[in-house]
């Protein structure tokens, strides 16, 4: 009974995390990892997981949850015609490669490094989305030629290191490349699947036989967290997608940026202060 009572607060926290992450997945085109990672990091610290691997477990578990969330979110956006299949075909392979490389690199660095990467990237993206820069673009369209692989490789690599589905990076990158915000959000939802599959696989392999892992772990992926979070995110992602299509471009950008700003400041405080 004591074991059950000890696990109940963690289970409740994970269920709430799944609910918030699911709505945000559909609303912002993110895989929910921008919520799952920081909350799981706190939960794992409460339950005594060693700091050296805590972010690895949070990131790997988040990526596994995103596999299911992205399918639900991408389907909802595809039904509304906001997934750019042409772009998915052009960037898909590069994103897959970047995600696998990012997960391998992340497994070899300290958790504080992952926290710092998470916070800094989220802060940069938040400022971009909050500033009145909707009409600022870097090009008239998606780059081609020699520079074409750079954006998807960056998105895939950094996203798998952060445990996010790619929307956090894909949405601002695509808007800078002159893509409409609603199409960027919808396409980012499908990118989440391309990032989470190889990313989770890399963390599973690299985390095998680590004695510091919490109970219920498969490599760095904690299956208890996946079992509690993933179903709720899948159920609620379509709710967020419906809300997204009721907002205008500026409202959606401001909402995205405000949320990321709060998350990034919290993660940077934890990394550099406490």
TrEMBL record:
It is found in: Cell membrane; Membrane. This is Probable membrane transporter protein. It is a multi-pass membrane protein. Keywords: Cell membrane, Membrane, Transmembrane, Transmembrane helix. Pfam families: TauE (PF01925). Its main location: membrane. The chain crosses the membrane at residues 12-44, 56-76, 88-105, 112-133, 153-177, 189-208, 220-240, 252-269. GO terms for cellular component: plasma membrane. Belongs to the 4-toluene sulfonate uptake permease (TSUP) (TC 2.A.102) family. Signal peptide: none annotated. The lineage of its organism: Bacteria, Pseudomonadati, Pseudomonadota, Gammaproteobacteria, Alteromonadales.
């Amino acid at each position: 009974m004591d074991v059950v009572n000890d696990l109940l607060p963690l289970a409740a926290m994970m269920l709430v995390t799944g609910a918030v992450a699911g709505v945000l997945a559909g609303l912002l085109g993110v895989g929910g990892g921008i919520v799952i990672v920081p909350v799981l990091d706190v939960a794992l610290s409460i339950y005594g997981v060693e700091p050296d691997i805590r972010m690895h477990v949070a990131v790997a578990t988040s990526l596994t949850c995103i596999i299911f969330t992205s399918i639900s979110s991408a389907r909802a956006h595809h039904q509304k015609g906001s997934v750019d299949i042409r772009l998915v075909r052009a960037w898909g392979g590069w994103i897959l490669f970047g995600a696998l490389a990012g997960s391998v690199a992340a497994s070899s660095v300290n958790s504080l490094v992952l926290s710092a990467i998470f916070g800094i990237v989220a802060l940069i993206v938040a400022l971009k989305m909050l500033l009145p820069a909707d009409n600022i673009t870097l090009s008239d369209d998606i780059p081609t030629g020699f520079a074409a692989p750079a954006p998807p490789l960056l998105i895939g690599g950094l996203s798998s290191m952060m445990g996010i589905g790619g929307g956090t990076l894909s949405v601002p990158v695509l808007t800078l490349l002159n893509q409409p915000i609603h199409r960027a959000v919808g396409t980012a939802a499908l990118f989440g699947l391309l990032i989470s599959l190889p990313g989770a696989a890399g963390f599973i392999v690299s985390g095998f036989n680590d004695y510091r892992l919490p109970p219920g772990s498969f490599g760095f992926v904690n299956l208890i967290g996946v079992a509690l979070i993933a179903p709720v995110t899948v159920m609620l992602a379509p709710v967020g997608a419906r809300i997204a299509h009721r907002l205008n471009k500026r409202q959606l950008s401001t909402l995205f940026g405000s949320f990321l700003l709060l998350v990034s400041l919290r993660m940077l405080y934890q990394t550099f202060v406490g």
